Amino acid sequence: MKNNEAAIIHIVDDDEAFRDSLLWLLESHDYRVVGHDSAEAFLEGFVSDGTGCLVLDIRMPGMSGLELFEELCARGSDWPVIFITGHGDVPMAVQAVKRGAHDFLEKPFNQQSLLDAVESALAASRSRRASEAARVAIEDRLASLTSREREVLDKVIEGKMNKVIADELGISIKTVEAHRGKMMDKMGARSIADLVQSVVACRRQGGS
Fold first, then answer.
1. Which Gene Ontology molecular function entries are recorded, alphabetically (predicted)?
2. Closest CA to 207 of 152, 143, 156
3. Could you tell me the pTM of the whole model?
4. Per-residue pLDDT tens digits for 82-91
């Protein structure tokens, strides 16, 4: 069952008839859809908050779809992009996918191909949002640690035992155990493996 309630799809295509046909198709499947007749019109009000994706014509007057994609990448947008392309533009679309675009569809394509591509893009967007929410939650928990608890955490993540941590920090094993217990509680970690996985994943995503 699709979860479309909070998601939004932007269609950017200068061909009004084609754009309207895509709007009708997606709206008939209970998606929230907004159409734009140019890349410039889309950029005027775009904010990449929440869950969504772009269905983007690769060739348009003015700013092309490829240039729009590059602009969004430069702005740090992580919204999935599905390119719509004619036969002659397939090599460009392939290069765009290699640079991070989600997918491309070559005209003419059937309705189910578009629906499948959109649902795949929205699933990717939801996954990214969930990962970001988890990272922020870990960041908040890390910020709640005292400096000593943070030192203990860092050494636990390095795989050091309590006795070694106590020797390196110049404190007793009981004090290490106390700090470690409080640190685990604040981090909401059920085990050391859980703690290590969450903190390492947070750091890989650019966290503390």
1. DNA binding
2. 143
3. 0.72
4. 999 887 788 8
